[in-house]
Amino acid sequence: MRPKQRNRLILAIVIVLFVAVSAALALTALNKNINLFYSPTMIVHGEAPHDRVIRAGGMVSEGSVQRDPDSLQITFKLNDKVNEITVKYTGILPDLFREGQGIIVQGKLAPDGTIMATEVLAKHDENYMPPEVEHALETAKQMGVANTKKD
Amino acid sequence: MSIIPNWLHRLSSPRNFYRFAGTVSDWCGWIALVLIAIGLYYGLVNSPPDYQQGDSARIMYIHVPAAWMSMFVYMVMAGAAAVGMIWRIKAASAFANASAPVGAMFTAMALATGMLWGKPMWGTYWVWDARLTSELILLFLYLGYMALQSAIEDRDTAARATAILALVGVVNIPIIHYSVEWWNTLHQGATVSKMDKPSIHISMLIPLLIMALAFKFYYFSNVLRRARCEVLEREKDKSWVQELVRGEQP
User: Fold this and answer.
1) What is the DSSP letter of A94?
2) Which helix H or strand E contains B180, and what residues bound it?
């Protein structure tokens, strides 16, 4: 390699390294702002602001969904397996909304820790499988539960 | 000199590159066409619907390969641009320039199909989460590359400037890939490319991989055809180009 080419190679490497380091520093500094949502634990610990619109993300707790019979109002709990928060929402829910599903809500935090949501987004998981497989998994899980109960 | 193998050096002569690219482009194009036909039939007709999303999940047979390609093409483009800048190989710069519109198309395709899927599934077309935002930045990097390349008249200056832009943008690629792990995002995590077993059923994985392969062949076919055009344009005053034009026009 001729000296000129070597210099240009070094220049290319330096550019990539330099940009990578500055991006890493900037992203570390902005780390909290890049997170799309607060987890229930963060909210319970008071890390989320009360005065502006925030997003909260977690799993819809099993058996916590209560629908108002006369309107579109719905109340449910969000958990991250450690802490739980209550969410109130009026409106149409996305297709993937169900108990146990990961979702993200947007709204304001009321003084009592309830989120008055204006938007509910369903978070899809990374699992893809045909319905029969899902059915087989469910059956296997229930049989497993039944077996442990017998013991 | 020793770093570049001999065949590659011979290929860097514009005339040889032109002929070689034509043959390879034709082959890649036909293979891509066959694979897309098989992949679409397998994906849209023959594969099962998803247990949660039903038939809407089928958009992934376009969305996921397009998103993979948007990153793959960028890495190839930046690599070719760097080789073009360091060793002053014109064919490499031409290859990088030809990659930019194809990469931009794949990025736009990934964004568009993702938005169409997002509305019924997530409940929104767009959120500013880390994955979606970094992919949008990738689209702007491609567009910026194309704008810069066409804004500078002198080809060698343009090659140098665009190579630096391409290298600067490389940092975005790991950010796109790991965005779903580093931050809380609405976009789901990686399904296929994670260390343990892919969390997708084999009957859906096969059409997905066929489509991914098809898109790769399409890319190579398309990019070589574009690179051929650029070589002709650059060499328009050379005797072999003029012979070629005269020979093909009776």
Assistant:
1) P
2) helix B172-182
Residue range A38-83, pLDDT digits in tens: 888 888 888 888 888 888 888 888 888 888 888 888 999 988 888 8
User: What is the rounded distance in angstroms from the CA atom of residue A146 to the CA atom of residue B113?
Assistant: 43
Contact at CB, A19 and B167, closer than 8 angstroms: yes
Q: In chain B, whose CA is at the least distance from the CA of A124?
A: B188
Per-residue pLDDT tens for B204-215? 889 999 999 999
Which of these ranges, B85-94, B110-119, B125-134, B187-196, has the smallest mean pLDDT?
B187-196
The full set of domain ranges for chain A reads 3-32, 36-122
pTM: 0.83
Can you give the residue ranges of every domain in chain B?
Answer: 23-184+195-248
Element housing A106 (H / E): strand A102-109
A93·B123 Cβ contact <8 A: yes
Contact B183 A39 (CB under 8 A): no
Rg of the Cα trace of chain A?
Answer: 23
Tell me the residue type at A78: L
Distance, in Å, from the CA atom of B43 to the CA atom of A8, rounded to the nearest integer, reads: 46
Name the class of domain A36-122.
Answer: mainly beta
Looking at the partner chain, which of A34, A35, A130 has a beta carbon nearest the beta carbon of B203? A130
Q: Give A-chain residues touching B204 at CB under 8 angstroms.
A: 128-130
List of chain B residues whose C-beta atoms are within 8 Å of the C-beta of residue A130: 48-51, 201, 203-204
In the chain, the amino acid numbered B234 is R
In three-state secondary structure terms, A93 is coil
pLDDT at A150: 45
Give the residue-averaged pLDDT of B182-186.
81
Please name which of B211, B198, B47 lies closest in space to residue A127, comparing C-alpha atoms.
B198
Q: Which residue in B56, B86, B182 is closest to A12 by CB distance? A: B86
The residue count for chain B = 250
> Hey, are the CB atoms on B171 and A23 less than 8 Å from each other?
yes
> Chain A partners of B123 at a C-beta cutoff of 8 Å?
93-94, 119-122
